[in-house]
Write a structure and sequence with these properties.
The chain is an alpha+beta fold. The chain has 3 helices and 13 strands, in the order H-E-H-E-E-E-E-E-E-E-E-E-E-E-E-H. The two termini are about 20 Å apart.
Length: about 170
Amino acid sequence: MRFVSSLILAAAAMTATTIEKLSLDEMTAKSTAIVRGKVNFSHVAQHGAVYYTHYKVSVSERLKGTTAAQVDVVMPGGRIGKSEQTFSGIPTFAADSEVVLFLWTSKAGMTHVIGLGQGIFNVSKDVAGQTILSRGAIREGMIDAKTGRPVEDAGIRMTLTELHSRIRGGAVTK
């Protein structure tokens, strides 16, 4: 968790962000909660020197951890009046979007998404009616934590049933 926090702070000083590539196993293990829900609305608040956009997510399903019926998820950056802070690699949510989020809570009590955009999956239905989770490839620079070398991301697509199975069984391979 410290790595992600440090990365967010470092992002303020850089024009591009480099993030640690996380597998589903790693995201699952590091998450304090994994939830499925609908993004309702957002607002921006300043915490110290950093602006955070707060997204209210109505939780429809808890895949890991215990959470309230609504969770406040923060992303660094936002606009307050005429002042705006932006950070490379920070995703945003569209209102009313349905998502699965891999979350962690900081010591300050703010809930963040694991690995920036890596921990956000869009929810949709396929032609057979199955619930599909997908995340496009992350375009920010990524490194392998063990080697420190640059790596590419291919994105992820799976069924919700498959994610349930992988979380319960720990048999995550991507």
